[in-house]
Amino acid sequence: MTAREDVLARIRKNQGGPADQTIPREYADSSLLSRAEVVEQFADRLRDYNATVHHCAVSAIAEAVSGILEARQKTGLLVPAGLPPAWLPEGYAFRVDDGLSYADLDASEGVLTACDVAIALTGTIVIAHSPAQGRRALSLVPDYHLCIVHLDQLVATVPEGMRRMASLLPAPLTTISGPSATSDIEMIRIKGVHGPRTLEVILAE
Amino acid sequence: MSVRVGEAASALPFPEAAKKLVANSQLRRNVRHATDIIRTKRGRVVGEKEDWEELRNAGKAIKDHTLAHLDRYLLQFEEACTKAGGKVHWARDADEANRIIVDLVKQYNSDEVIKVKTMTSDETRLNVALEAAGITPFETDLADLIVQLGEDKPSHIVVPALHRNRMEIREIFMKKMGLDTLGYQPEDLTAAARKYLRERFLRVKVGISGANYLIAETGSVVVVESEGNGRMCLTLPEVLISIVGVEKVIPRFEDLEVFLQLLPRSATGERMNPYNSIWTGVTPGDGPQAFHIVLLDNGRTEVLADPESRETLDCIRCGACLNACPVYRQTGGHAYGSVYGGPIGAILTPQLQSMEHSQTLPYASSLCGACYEVCPVKINIPEILIHLRTKVVESGHAPLAERLAMKGAAFAMSKASRLSLAHAFARLGQWPFNDDGKLDNLPGLLAGWTETRDLDAIPSESFREWWSER
Amino acid sequence: MVITLYITCYNDALFPETGKAVVEVLERLGHTVEFRAAQTCCGQMHYNTGYRQDSYDLLRQFLNVFADAEVIVCPSSSCVAMMRDHYPKMAEQLNDPQLKAQVEAVLPRVFEFSELLVDKLGVKDVGAFYPHTVTLHASCHALRSLHIGTKPADLLKQVRGLTLLELPDADQCCGFGGTFAVKNPDVSAAMLSDKLQCVLGTKAEACTGADNSCLMHIGGALSRQRTGVRTIHLAEILASTEKSQ
């Protein structure tokens, strides 16, 4: 008997169990907050995480990016191949990730990506492997991540967010709710262990 | 087939291990501090969630339902994962799992691996097997790194190094990372760990992880984390091997919405933990191009067999029961002699081993019920503890003196007349221990009482005697 | 009304004063107390320690004695919890439908002492006088099984002369846990030391509660450490009047 057959046989023998139960799903599915409150909640959560938050019109994204790079004194960022060119301001070096080495990713000044879904209640941004977000390593290795969230992509609750995420499969997904953190040393929360230590978000409408 | 749960089979009985640990004032201070903080944070984020009870009900129902159809869901997962380019292996016990993984690492010609936190690998003692095969495992979770470099053992499910304070950690880092200077602020220690590990993240070709959830419907695997080392190990290596207990599967992607709300709030007191990684098989151009998953039994099917206690397998490893437990608070995790400590450890550890070992663990509880209150999937731990105690007694493993005393008590209480007689004998028998109205130096099973507490002598007239004179 | 007293095995032998206090209070309120001499034990110690067979016998015995009682009062929340939490399941395990029916019929008629006063008799002021500072320990069974809430505190607040001081971390187990105290004496003592710090921190003269099991444990340490703080069961405070001072 193979291990597979053995384990399955034991499971079948032991699982017993009643007939199919229905799963009670009486938990909150949506939010009672107004749209404006949802947007404010999202921005609030991000600020709680020490992520810097900017608001701008969709047409002004490039301008917002430019202002941020100026303030941060950066000369450019890495970008995924499918990032909308309209988002990229003149005068900065945007290098496309076409299979850069990890060393290159590590040495970069940071990365600029879009996102797929955002969840207000938990301050979550969801990145999926796609042209405008790139491979996972791209938004992981650099120390700075600038993310454009379109307010259309923002939902209020986790169940709403998960429904949108389901349609992205089988692409790999990463949910990001603040910079990395650890409380392993005396329960004191230290932000930024691995993963980008600085997260900056542009909310575009 | 031989089940192994870390070193639980050879661990000290709980009372013996606990005796040493309660005398450790640094440990007690650290454990108290850590559990107080998480409990407070948990209280806040659970308190603000108005549908918390509804989420718990859904979580429990999903888990119970899954366990009742475990074969179906595992097969569904296997099919979907394989279709997406993953390779699924099955392991009956710890040794088989370790062997499969060692063989895979060798197959990919690597003599080192980077690991994301997985208690399942501690359960099988994977690191020992890897090292024996000449493969160096690098733990990358900060706490696991502290434990590994400190040549120590984890003491909590979620915060494994909570028994260490910063000075101890600084010592360990300086010694093992070869540092001449190192600050002692947590920021300094974290920065040292980041640098030490980063070099490995960018270089090592094989990653090993566990998983929090397997999604049958889509063949996806989910890892929940805070530090980012998970993303590193899951994304950067060429090969990824995940070792996962068979009870981790859930039916649909939709079900994840329940657990991603229950777990972060229960485990770390956050609305959402920093990073969740959800991947399905292999994706060209993104992440490991070879993905292997080892589905582990190692006693889980035994736990499944007992309808009264199979809900033990509902556990989502949040650690909330540890933080709530007044016993754990005094001893920390090492007293349980198992990779799984605290209330869940007290019921899971002996059951995985078919009750052959760790028989003192079901008694490591005052049955206060605090764990049941906080369990996000409503595992009735106190009920199960009593059930396991019954198994220990009925298999003949209770201490003889105790069995005799309990038999004697049962006999005395079977009839009121016998009970009155027993009162009379007790009043007589207490005479040698009676020191001016207080009993002292009680023998045998009762000695533990008078070591630290006074005990009033038995009153000369019982209530029933008083009533009969009325 | 006629109230049947279930004294509990340990109160009977070790804390007869508590039983007398229950009788005193109920008679003062104009009720008749009956005591059925055939009673022994609810089976909690055996059941909780894993001696299930012995506890089945004690379940049957309890029903033999009390099945037809109209109102049963019990000055021990852990014993009431034993019945509510486990008797139905035990009857189920015994596969005895008649037993199950008896259990279902009798359970709604069983009351812990403060439950009886507040819920059944609708009274909070029992005419008591106890001019001391007191802190209240909430036993785990009262808290989590009986969901006793504020009943004991409500009763104490009506006692003339009594100052009720809040106990910090009241939801932390004192470490008694029945046989736990002797099977795990070191951890039990460690838990007790935390509880003692909380009690002593209130500077109360006395620590009270609904369970002599917890009080015996807490009081044992208060006495061993010569703290000068005493324990006293809730019923005994409620029985206390100007005359009894």
Question: Would you spell out the secondary-structure blueprint of this structure?
Answer:
The complex is a heterotrimer of chains A (205), B (470) and C (245).
Chain A: H1 3-14, H2 35-48, E1 52-56, H3 61-72, E2 76-79, E3 93-96, H4 102-107, E4 111-113, E5 117-119, E6 124-128, E7 144-150, E8 154-155, H5 158-166, E9 173-176, E10 181-182, E11 190-191, E12 198-204
Parallel strand pairs in A: 1-12, 2-3, 4-7, 5-8, 7-12
Antiparallel strand pairs in A: 5-6, 6-9, 10-11
Chain B: H1 14-22, H2 25-47, H3 52-68, H4 70-83, E1 86-91, H5 94-107, E2 112-115, H6 119-124, H7 126-132, E3 136-139, H8 142-149, H9 166-177, H10 186-201, E4 206-209, E5 213-215, E6 220-225, H11 229-235, E7 239-245, E8 249-250, H12 256-267, E9 275-280, E10 290-296, H13 300-304, H14 320-324, H15 328-331, H16 342-352, H17 370-374, H18 381-394, H19 400-413, H20 416-429, E11 434-435, E12 438-439, H21 447-452, E13 455-456, H22 463-469
Helix pairs in contact in B: 3-12, 9-10, 16-18
Chain C: E1 2-5, H1 9-14, H2 16-28, E2 32-34, H3 44-49, H4 52-66, E3 72-74, H5 77-93, H6 97-106, E4 110-112, H7 113-120, E5 133-136, H8 140-145, H9 151-157, E6 163-165, H10 180-183, H11 185-202, E7 206-209, H12 212-224, E8 230-233, H13 234-239
Helix pairs in contact in C: 5-6, 11-12
SS field, number of helical segments of chain A: 5
Structural class of chain A: alpha/beta
| Spatial arrangement of strands, main beta sheet of chain A | 1-12-7-4
User: Would you report the number of β strands of chain C?
Assistant: 8
The overall average pLDDT of chain A, rounded, is 94
Structural category of chain C is: alpha/beta
How can the largest sheet of chain C be summarized? 4 strands, parallel
Number of helical regions of chain C:
13
Shape of chain A: globular
- Looking at how many chains there are and whether they match, the oligomeric state comes to heterotrimer
- Share of helix of chain A, binned: 25-40%
Strand numbers in spatial order across the main sheet of chain C: 2-1-3-4
